[in-house]
Amino acid sequence: MQGMSDFPRWRYFLVAIVLVVGILYALPNVYAPLQAVQVTPAQGTTLDPTVEQKVITALQTAKLPYVNESLKHDPSRGDYIVVGFTNGDQQKNAADALKAALGENYNVGFNLESTVPRWLGMIGGRSMPLGLDLQGGVRFLMAVDQNDIIDRQENRYTQDITALLKERKIPFVAVSRNATRGQGVNVVLSSAADRTAASDAIATEYTDLAVTDGQSTGDRFVLNAIIKPDKLRDLQVNAIRQNLATLSNRINALGVSEPVIQAQGEDHISVELAGVQDPAEAKKVIGATATLQYVAGLGEARFNGRDWAGDQTVADAVRTGNIPPDAHLYYNPDNTVAYLVSKNIIASGDELVDASSGNDQQSGSPSVNVTLNSVGAAKMLDFTRDNVGKPMAVVYVESTTDTKIVDGKEVRTPKTTYQVINYATIQGVFSNKFQTTGLGSPKAASDLALMLKGGSLAARMDIVQEGVIGPSLGQDNIDKGLMAVLLGLALVLVAAAIYYKLFGLVADVALFFNLVILIAVMSAIGVTLTMPGIAGIVLTLGMAIDANVLICERVREELRNGSTPLAAIRAGYEKAWATILDANVTHLIAALALTTMGSGPIKGFGVTLLIGILTSMFTSVTVTHAITALIHHGRKLKTLSV
Predict the structure, then answer these.
(1) In the list 3, 111, 145, 487, which could disulfide-bond 460, CB 3.0-4.6 Å?
(2) Which residues form the Protein export membrane protein SecD/SecF C-terminal domain (predicted)?
(3) How far apart are CA 514 and CA 126, in angstroms?
(4) pTM attached to this predicted model
């Protein structure tokens, strides 16, 4: 009895709590998800019970049996309807039927519906999301056009410098981009004094530009303003970040479960959409480019269920199609309000610097605060000065590419849609900073700010590589991966039990709980399981037994040296711990390097290995010690089964 008192009671409680929690959080992975179709509203459209009824009616008409349907709300994704099916064929047929029934105001995409019991979900239990190689789906590699970044920035500086010289009343002959991309902006002035004044003004106002004197001839004095290399690198990094954010927003509309969107190298973005089997639909959303236009409002008319009422000119334009030559006819996102807006654009999304949602200080209603650059500010000031009390519209412009197969060939057709996302009266004169009010809810304000700030890509992207992995191949990977885990686990269990007898069986129990706790931790923190991740699990199981081998060999050595059985157990754990710690620390360093420096499959392998090493250190030492202590506690031992 004496040797077991060094394993205190609180450790038993710790082991018991960890094992119970581990089982609870690993349990969701037993429940296989349903193949599902997800319906989400397009920009500005809302979901309500009538849409849910349309979904049910469409499925009943198509005679497609569904497992369940529900209208859900997720703070990160808003409202959506999800319908579950028993197989992939029903899922695909249902998606086709719903696309035809709901039209373009709603996005219909493939997804997986969790079958995890509600009580598990309430404590945060969830199954591990499966990666592209296990679930099937599409992968795109997109190249960010670095030249487009330079073009946009040099065009912006050209406009900003022009506005600055006018504001400072410095006479100039011309401001234009250099014919060679990347060589900045040329400013031509008529005197040396004007050049000096312009140089000082530009250098002071735009510290990211390197201003130098150019070659002058006669009465033409030239300045060269070139973007500094550090600023250009920052622009390229920020372009990648903004494009990542914009892609994330767009992909949410596809209803994809756990999309993987990450930078790859300096100018590429990798997009993996697990569960998506329609690359044309995915490309349509991902490859879209969006921008905003601020234009003068000329009138609006609303559809009252029977006819259009409001501004007579607008109503007539809707009915007859006769649109005034100086105007465009646009609609709100759900096509219930029509607007006539001016063809003259006051400012566009390219001139927007920042946008944030908040509340109007006077009324307390939701609002969006917008900041424009100097060019947009000057135009906005001129317009609002003359149009207080008149309406202004915010038009969301999105360019997509429809892809169809015609005669065996892929035909891509550009498509541009225009929607009025805000139509409000100008309350006062403003320029670079102004507030948009009259929004229905804080969520509407937040959505508008998001569209203003991240609705457009910072730089053009081209899809340079795409691939489709079928669900059957993904299922084959799952089956083989599961077989690898089970086979590896079985071989290790048998070898340990044969060689180390009772101590081997204890190690086997700990190894099983190691797998359970590893899966529980990965599920709890949302690690996406991939084939490299499965390889990491198999490797972890093989490495986890190392600690028990060291302990068992140490116990054997103590017995050979004449120690009593209980003393041999105590010494075995104490003396083996330093070696176990050293070995696992070196493994941890390697796993940490893979996790922090790797990407994609390498990172997935590293994360699994990192978690597995930590869990195996706990189970191999603490759990086995607890079980061994329980088995041998209170017994007079002459020998050990080791």
Answers:
(1) 145
(2) 461-632
(3) 19
(4) 0.61
